[in-house]
Amino acid sequence: MHVSLQLNERIPPVMRRVVGTLLLAWLGCFASGCCYFNNLNGPEQFERGYTLVLPGIEGPSHFNSDIAQGLRDGGLDTAIEVHDWTSGNFVNFLSHLRSVPRHRREAENLAAEIVAYQDAYPGRPVHLVGMSGGGGMALLTLEQLPADRRVTSVMLLAPAISPQYDLRQVLDRTEYGIWNFSSLGDIFILGAGTSVAGTIDGKHSPSAGMVGFRPPADDPDAYRGRVREIRYSLDMALDGNLGGHMGTSNRSFIRKHVATRLASLPDPNTSSGRAAEQPQPEASQTPAPGQADDDVPVSASEYQLHLSRAHR
Fold first, then answer.
1. Rg (Cα) of the chain, in Å, rounded?
2. What is the count of structural domains for the chain?
3. How confident is the model at residue 100, as a pLDDT?
4. Distance, CA of 134 to CA of 128 (rounded, Å)
5. Which pLDDT score, from 0 to 100, does residue 258 have?
6. Which residue segment(s) compose the domain that 153 sits in?
7. Distance in angstroms (rounded) separating the CA atoms of residues 260 and 7
8. Exposed/middle/buried for 116, CB within 10 Å: 0-12, 13-18, 19+?
9. pLDDT tens digit string along 104-153?
10. Cβ contact 57:133 at 8 Å
11. Kind and range of the H or E element at 51?
12. 259 lies in a domain?
């Protein structure tokens, strides 16, 4: 039996109301009015690339600011913009999570913004960094990109989208693929929370930010080489990530685990970058020295093993 069925069966109506109330209180404590990051989007930064940080369903908050600051701390020298795709009012957080018209409209706007940037600055890298609901929006934005446009990379931080979401439809819109940061410790928000309230793609189940993405049954190796599951490990606590929902937004964690990955990606417009983008032989799937064991492509068997741990 899947984790989603188990959680839905075990959460009584009273507990579901409690979860909703606590979630609202949590959002109220950390959201509105806390954002202090000034977008780093001067002409010099735009010449070097464009990074869009997409916040969660709480909207502007100090979490988004920490992500952006951590990216800069880690040496990412592109323009960095926190793009609020929500209404700006955290009270509407459930609408931000489940409103399909808003998702479609904002995804179209974001895709148009990316295309406009690429037209003005051809060949520059474009990165999407999405936190929680913003992770879901990053993928929906890829869906809206024209077939001849791609972003450089996508970093998903505890994304509130279902594990069944088919990444095949968006992988071709990226140069280097998708990184997904997940944690089994995110049981409250991305376990019980999205099992009750739903994910951004309308599924009542734990999210991919908790259990990872599930490779399609008809093509179990579809994600190999393009989707990298970065699962929580205890050593991440040293960088401020304790395994909860907001752990991946910690400034120190972003600096060490996200910014360094982005800053080290080859330029796809150079000969070395184009070579790095080509499919590599199977032997290259083993971690390089200093690379986390989980920073390798996911396979169907690996996913099933990881999912089984969530049953315990």
1. 18
2. 1
3. 85
4. 10
5. 97
6. 3-265+289-310
7. 36
8. exposed
9. 999 999 999 999 999 999 999 999 999 999 999 999 999 999 999 999 99
10. yes
11. strand 50-54
12. yes
